[in-house]
Design brief:
Blueprint: H1 4-8, E1 14-17, E2 24-38, E3 41-51, E4 61-67, H2 82-93, E5 97-102, H3 124-139, E6 144-154, H4 156-163, H5 170-177, E7 184-188, H6 193-198, E8 206-211, H7 219-229, E9 238-242, E10 256-258, E11 271-273, H8 277-295
Parallel strand pairs: 4-5, 4-6, 6-7, 7-8, 8-9
Antiparallel strand pairs: 1-2, 2-3, 3-5, 10-11
Helix pairs in contact: 3-4
Length: about 300
């Protein structure tokens, strides 16, 4: 099987039929410098850039940074996953740019899901610095409105959204003081325990979308985080919890037990992952309504 780099090389300027009515968006593989360093040099990350069709330097458009979960952004064949391409299509149809960031391949990792928390080489520190590097990269592009950037993440990427927008963390506070922050942030089924413990004060309006039956990253800590953060910030976070929905409820895949995942509400018992049509549709509309309001 070819690597993600090999299978995606040469995609620059490739036109893909994306968005409503087959609207065209240009996809290019790009290099995005992380704020994480290796031997004094910025670590180069792999990015997949989907420019909104009508945006120009004279009329820049908002941009959304897509942050993958513990499984990375690719499918088993090495191409971008169905989830990533689906959301890119939706975002481009709104007239927004989209950047899919790969935090794993440049660090020699394929996935984190089967690794115990506490043993992972790629942590929220690395992913936070990747996020800031990507925001910096987006801000420098002439076709991007640097005042209208958004974060969108799933699972481990959802936790990255929290870790990258919590001004209680020194790195986030420093970035915010340099105006390096998103206009809005959306986190699908994130793990909220770490930022709940730290105390969460968002640098931007935040929407959390959680499954009521999620036994991997439970909704309860996220509900507690939202409630507790009301006393720390003027930007009150929002949360939507979809009854009966498991982890990955926005997928079209059937629910299955992943016994290979060592983390979760009951460590060692595995976790359930899979889609729920009602939650998939509702969360899509909730996400779009929120981003439309924040990026207008």
């Amino acid at each position: 099987m070819s690597s993600p780099i090999q299978s995606l090389a040469g995609l620059a300027a490739l036109l893909l039929g994306l968005g409503a009515g087959g609207a065209q968006a240009t996809q290019a593989q790009v290099q995005v410098p992380s704020l994480d360093q290796r031997e004094g040099q910025a670590l180069p990350l792999i990015g997949h850039w989907f420019a909104a069709k009508a945006a120009t330097s004279a009329k820049p458009a908002p941009a959304v940074l897509l942050l993958h979960g513990c499984g990375g952004p690719y499918d088993k064949k090495g191409g971008l996953s169905e989830r990533m391409l689906d959301y890119v299509s939706v975002l481009n149809a709104e007239g927004w740019h989209a950047l899919v960031l790969d935090s794993l391949t440049p660090r020699g990792e394929k996935e984190l899901c089967t690794q115990k928390i506490g043993t992972r080489a790629v942590t929220m520190t690395e992913r936070r610095r990747d996020t800031f590097g990507a925001l910096q990269w987006l801000s420098a592009r002439p076709e991007v409105d640097a005042q209208r950037l958004a974060l969108l993440g799933w699972s481990n990427g959802g936790s990255t959204v929290l870790a990258s927008s919590n001004t209680q963390h020194p790195e986030v506070k420093a970035a915010t003081e340099k105006a390096l922050k998103p206009r809005a942030a959306v986190a699908f089924y994130p793990g909220c325990e770490a930022d709940l413990k730290r105390g969460y004060s968002p640098s931007a309006p935040l929407l959390i979308l959680s499954g009521g039956s999620d036994d991997w990253t439970a909704a309860a800590p996220c509900q507690a985080l939202v409630k507790a953060s009301e006393t720390l910030s003027l930007a009150k976070p929002q949360i939507k919890v979809y009854p009966g929905a498991f982890h990955g409820f926005d997928s079209s895949a059937p629910v299955r037990l992943r016994a290979d995942v060592p983390n979760g509400v009951t460590p060692g018992a595995g976790v359930h992952v899979g889609g729920q049509p009602a939650a998939r549709e509702a969360s899509r509309q909730d996400m779009l309504s929120f981003l439309r309001e924040q990026l207008k």
